[in-house]
Amino acid sequence: MKVLIVFAHPEPASLSAALRDEAVAALKADGHAVQISDLYAMNWKTTVDKADFPAMAPDTRLKVAAQSSAAFAANALTDDVKAEQEKLRWADMLILQFPLWWYTMPAILKGWIDRVYAYGFAYGVGEHNDRYWGERFGEGTMAGKRAMLIVTAGGWAEHYSQRGVNGPIDDLLFPINHGVLYYPGYTVLPPFVSYRVDRLDETGFTRTAAALRERMQTLATTEPIAYRRQNGGDYVIPTLELKPDLEAAGTSGFALHLNPTV
Fold first, then answer.
1. DSSP per residue, 188-252
2. Mean pLDDT along residues 56-75
3. Could you list the residue range(s) of the whole structural domain that residue 147 is in?
């Protein structure tokens, strides 16, 4: 398997970096090929602006989706973006690894997604009609590939439980798992989340590292999150609302988009 790890932490001596190294060692020990995009080390440009579209006329109003589409079609995106897209084409498995900051990913990783996920590459693909609404949410350019998150959090696991003050971790990560990974077609595996990492002692790290190595050894066999496919018949097109008869009793929110029969 070919694995791309997109890593977002500013400190090379961080716990996140140590866990990344454990993951890479486990993957390579099993014969997998690994590439790493260390965004802080790469000094990754975070913001989308006119500099991302070199062929754009200086006096043209920036409409990001339109310029992204034109630049991708003309192979005129910037070299750093094209290099990351090539890594995504190469990889069978994508891992996004980051600390949970203010309930989401660091800005530099969001900027990687904003710039690399170009129109025509990760979105804006497939026809739209009264029965089919583009290739996304289970279909798309990344269909057939797997993806997952490795996340570190400072709070307790209980803080991210169903009754926890931070809200359920699955809900917090839904926009990334479903909206960033499943949207372009990835089969999404459950995330690997480490809690109370600021207080992790040597024993705790040893236990966490062992669990992460085990996850790396089961990437091909881990059951994915059972998201509903957009064009699989569960949603009304074109409004893309879940059909009322598919709502399980007591289910609401993001859980509506899980298929309980899978």
1. EPPPEEE-SGGG--HHHHHHHHHHHHHHHHTTTTSPPP-BPPTTTTSEETTTTEEPGGG--TT--
2. 93
3. 2-223
